[in-house]
Fold this sequence. Notes:
The complex is a heterodimer.
Chain A: H1 2-19, E1 25-31, H2 36-49, E2 53-58, H3 62-71, E3 76-79, H4 85-90, E4 95-110, E5 119-120, H5 122-130, H6 139-142, E6 156-160, H7 165-177, H8 179-184, E7 197-199, H9 201-211, E8 215-220, H10 221-226, E9 233-235, E10 241-242, H11 246-256, E11 280-288, H12 294-308, H13 325-334
Parallel strand pairs in A: 1-2, 1-3, 5-9, 6-7, 6-8
Antiparallel strand pairs in A: 3-11, 4-8, 4-11, 9-10
Chain B: H1 2-11, H2 18-26, H3 29-57, H4 59-65, H5 68-71, E1 75-76, E2 81-82, H6 85-116, H7 119-133, H8 137-162, H9 183-207, H10 211-219, H11 224-235, H12 237-253, H13 256-261, H14 279-286, H15 293-326
Antiparallel strand pairs in B: 1-2
Helix pairs in contact in B: 3-15, 4-15, 6-9, 6-12, 7-9, 8-9, 9-12, 10-11, 12-15, 14-15
Amino acid sequence: MKKSLLVVSILFALALTVAARPGTILLNAAGATFPYPIYSKWFDVYHQKNPDVQINYQSIGSGGGIRQLQAGTVDFGASDGPMSDEQLKDSKFKILHFPTVLGAVIPIYNIPGVSGELNFTQKALAGIYLGTITKWNDPEIANANSGVKLPGSDIVVVHRADGSGTTYIFTDFLSSASEAWKGKVGKGTSPQWPVGLGGKGNEGVAGLVKQTDGSIGYVELIYAVQNNISYGKVQNASGKFVKADLAGVTAAAAAKAKEIPDDFRVSIVNAPGAAAYPISSFTWLLVPAQISDGAKRDAIKGFLKWMLTDGQGYNEGLSYAKLPKPVVDKELKAISQIQ
Amino acid sequence: MTAAATTLQHAAPPVSGPRALIQRLRHGDEIAHLLTLTFAAAILLLTSMLVWELWVNSHLSRAKFGWNFFWTQTWDPIFDTFGAAPFIYGTLITSIVALSLAVPLGLASAIFLSELAPRKISDTVSFLIDLLAAVPSVIYGLLGIFIVVPLMRTWLGPALIATLGKLPVIGKLFAGPNYGVGFFTAGIVLAIMVVPFIISVSREVLLTVPREQREAALALGATRWEATWQVVVPWARSGIMGSVFLALARALGETMAVTMVIGNDPKISASLLHPGYTIAAVIANEFTEATGDLYLSALIELGLVLFLMTFILNGLARVLIVATERGGGRPA
């Protein structure tokens, strides 16, 4: 009894010292779920290297991250899509975008009798998701896959049901690939899909595709890599069929590096270059331009700097593509905008 | 009980001032009264605050769409057009399918367990059923994905299309294509989820029917079935109805299990085999990534609509119970 009392009081005292250690800067952040694995790794490693900075990240979704940042309840936010002009105008303070990692979206399919990697033209993907291409042996698909015997069965289209950055990237690509898509559906985290079934999360889409004969869906590259799902090649802006990998995604960002505006709000879908994978995107941290608390400001700037240099080394272990060097350099310069 | 309490109060000599209050409090009745009143009021307050929050935060959407929100069939967050019709439809249809499967099954099981089964078996099975009622809904969703959906796609769906699908009017309800996910699958999963509630509550109610009622019916020459169906069940009718409406409330608001098997496509289609969407599912799916103010407001208005639906259906339930009680059954 006495012993347990002693243990409890020691634990209590320990807890107090941990909680109240002077000089610890606690930063709160919230937002996108897609980069959550790498963010939590970064925040953890950064805390080990700089014990006086602790970053607490809630993966509540991009929409939530933007709202919390605008309301001032978090120190910085995170989003898979850049904030719109309207959203920036509605904010009471100036918000800066910092690209952190790159993601890609890939098509997966399940066609009985077809085991190889299929080639998808941009027109084919847009047509399938618009509902204008309905059979697997449609010439738009068949011509790009000579030698593969495609069945004449119906295509079952699968998309994400939950609002997600993955959908944002995919619809951004379809908007760039097809005028019809751009006018009729547009890009967003949950568009009005012309056809198809909705699965919840990457696992929901992958599950539906696996179970349904003749189906096609899209998931994040990371999800496919980690779960050993085979996927198709997609035609890029220079007409080549590219199989998504981390290098191809970085290549897409590098190809657009020169055109990146100073606020980093840029789409890199359909980037030029033979190696560039066309369905790629940045994901961003959203940081207020003015931070009145000096300690917090220094902590955020310190973290951004580390993230852009040493931090990028952790990306590929978790299947995220690295930022290309020109983008990193540009961002390092932009850090000084935080005041 | 009341008489005893009054005498007790009268027995105490009348004292005034703060001492009187202390003395009254010492009896405990007043404290209990106050305490329970506060808690009851808290529930009322909580409900009204909920409605208030939903009402205030859905302001943008209500101002823009008005009553059209209820019958607009488009849900397009990119072009900011929002209508609740496909979701209201999906919520109602899945709940109707669920109840039409679960009520006969649940009621029959409850009758067997309370009237026919040996007490030991009845108690064991009831214990297991109560366990089923406590299983988290995501587990039922997984059960749906891995068992019900494949069954529906390969066997039950084609069977329904080949048989009921050929009938003149009902045929429309079972037209293809059949993906395995859709209203009917969601209805089946919901039925599995709500059946424990119906069985558990109905059995308890049936067990409270006095033994004399059964004996009297049997003494008048009724068979065991006649005694059960014509005397015991009508006696327990309002309790059974209560169990059905409890089940309905769960079916209307179920989110996780439904979104995993319904196909999440906001369309109104006559066929039960087609994919659809429900209010609770769309809120859960889209809330986190809803960036626009109008979008968020429309999702909150959907919450208000769901609240309203539950409210109306519960009101109807009350009316139904009162009406059937007047028509016979259990004497007041």
